[in-house]
Amino acid sequence: MYFETHDGTRLAYEDYGQGRPIVFVASSMLCSDMWEYQIPHFVERGYRCIALDRRGHGRSDRPSSGYDLDTGADDLAVLIEHLDLREVTLVGHSMGGAEVVRYLARHGDARIARIALVSAMLPFIRQTDDNPEGVPGALLDASLAALDADRPKWLARQAQAFFATHLGNDVSPAQIDFTLRQCLATSPWAVRQCQRNVLDFDHRATLPEIGVPAMIVHGAADLSAPVEVTGRRTAKLIPGAVYHEYPTAGHGLFVSHRDQFNADLLAFVASR
Q1: Ranges of each domain in the chain
Q2: Do 55 and 75 touch, CB atoms closer than 8 A?
Q3: Helix residue spans in 108-230 (DSSP H)
Q4: How far is CA 216 from CA 5, 115, 264, in A?
Q5: Is the separation of the CB atoms in 163 and 256 below 8 Å?
Q6: Which neighbouring-strand residues pair with 116?
Q7: CATH 3.40.1280.10 is held by the domain 2-270
């Protein structure tokens, strides 16, 4: 299924089940297919599950612009309004988590019941004079340069760390290959723009203003979004946030720790 955004971009989404809505917002490079182990789980338990393909990703259009977080948040708002969703649980992974936060900052929480931020790229990744806890810029820039130089090589080098298989997580080579193929199918231009935009956005001022229940889930072995820079700091900034840290999880905990994550998310969504 498709809808059009304010600038005429045609975006794809999937919509399954009936009941209270959960909207899944994917990571940069990944699409709605990443939620393969979440959507059936929640549909079978009486929820309506909607998953969006960000512009440049999956089956959506590939325009030349709109890969900033504010446009991503606005695209999400159009989808929610298009389907006239209410009492929504927003679940965002990585860059998707940052877009969820920007959605609340730009569009408010009138339609939103709660949010779950999963391995989210928050609150501010790049180290600056007023953000000494961030990742040094030289490391980020070197990684971006390697991505630009040989994207398939960069992704292949990240694959095992993405699921933290070195810690004994049971993720098959076929699953890893499937995830890599999703990433490689994404518009290279979109990848380049998304990576730069998410690393340099400062959410620290808006996180304390979140007024809906929030759950943060993060892996202690997350190489892409180091937990001491992201998850732990985000949990401290959002009032009353529920925080789950998985000791052996990497960035791809939605696969490697699917049972634990699904149970934690179900408990959170079901809470009143």
Answers
A1: 2-270
A2: yes
A3: 137-149, 151-163, 173-184, 188-199
A4: 29, 9, 10
A5: yes
A6: 91, 215
A7: no
Asked if 76 contacts 25 with a C-beta cutoff of 8 angstroms, the reply is yes
pLDDT of residue 46: 98
Is the overall model pTM greater than 0.85, yes or no? yes
Q: Is 158 within 8 Å of 223 (Cβ atoms)?
A: yes
- Residue (of 25, 29, 41) closest to 79 by Cα position: 25
- Label residues 15-28 b or e (16+ Cβ within 10 Å = b): eebeebbbbbbbbb
Residue 272 has pLDDT above 80, yes or no: no
> Structure tokens of 23?
């909207």
Question: What letters, b where the CB count within 10 A reaches 16 and e where it falls short, cover 188-204?
Answer: eebbbbbbbbbbebebe
> Is residue 21 a contact partner of residue 50, using CB atoms and an 8 Å limit?
yes
The two most distant CA atoms of the chain are separated, in Å, by 49
Burial class (CB in 10 A: 0-12, 13-18, 19+), 82: middle
Q: What's the pLDDT score for residue 23?
A: 98
What are the backbone angles phi and psi of residue 59, rounded to the nearest 5°? Answer: -100, 5
The residues annotated as belonging to the active site are 94, 222, 251
